[in-house]
Design a protein that fits this description.
- With about 200 residues, the protein is mainly alpha-helical.
- Helix content is about 75%, strand content about 0%.
- The radius of gyration is 19 Å and the shape is elongated.
- The N and C termini lie far apart (about 65 Å).
- It has ten helices and no strands.
Length: about 200
């Protein structure tokens, strides 16, 4: 049997992630390893060569979605920088998050099944590690513009991230009378009122 090249191994890993994302979106964490390997056309051994177990695979899919959402939010935020409105970029990034929270893949994998698949403590730690840094950068920028008191920055970052996560969960549950636009409008009032 010919040894696989690093490029082939990376292609297999990428194909596993694509198939897992599709099946985790459609079936949640209940998607079987058998269905994932069938989708890719590989053996279970090949999958486990790349991922220790199903939870490790789920985490990689979850993390990839978080990183993609963050990149989209940053891109939007950069395009919205404004000398007249220091809040504009941060708010644009937050709205991108809210829009992602209604995407079927992000909603199912990150918000609905993520806490169960990764364990609530694991989900919170991973979400905090990725999200809190980004929120804190935005808060620090608002501090530099005199919009938030420096001593309030750590607490403001925690509260803002909590508000965004709560909004994402509410949107994923399709709660009545709320939408991305209504939540965003209220979120903007809340953020602009912090001094």
């Amino acid at each position: 049997m010919a040894k696989r090249t690093p490029e082939q191994a990376e292609e297999t890993r990428a194909a596993i992630l694509v198939a897992a994302r599709k099946l985790f979106t459609d079936q949640g964490f209940d998607a079987s390893i058998s269905s994932i390997v069938a989708e890719v056309g590989i053996t279970k051994g090949a999958l486990f060569h790349h991922f220790e177990n199903k939870q490790a695979l789920y985490y990689e899919v979850w993390r990839d979605l978080q990183i993609r959402m963050d990149a989209a939010a940053r891109k939007t935020a950069v395009s919205m920088r404004s000398q007249q409105d220091p809040y504009a970029a941060f708010l644009a990034g937050c709205k991108t998050y809210l829009q992602w929270s209604i995407r079927p893949d992000y909603q199912r994998i990150v918000l609905l099944d993520g806490p169960t698949a990764l364990g609530l403590a694991g989900w919170y730690e991973a979400d905090s590690d990725l999200g809190q840094k980004n929120v804190r950068r935005g808060i620090d920028y608002l501090v530099s513009k005199g919009k938030i008191a420096p001593e309030r920055a750590p607490d403001a970052a925690v509260l803002i991230q909590g508000a965004l996560n709560g909004a994402g969960f509410a949107l994923s549950r399709k709660e009545a009378d709320i939408s991305v636009d209504t939540i965003f409008a209220t979120f903007e009032v809340m953020l602009r009122s912090m001094k």
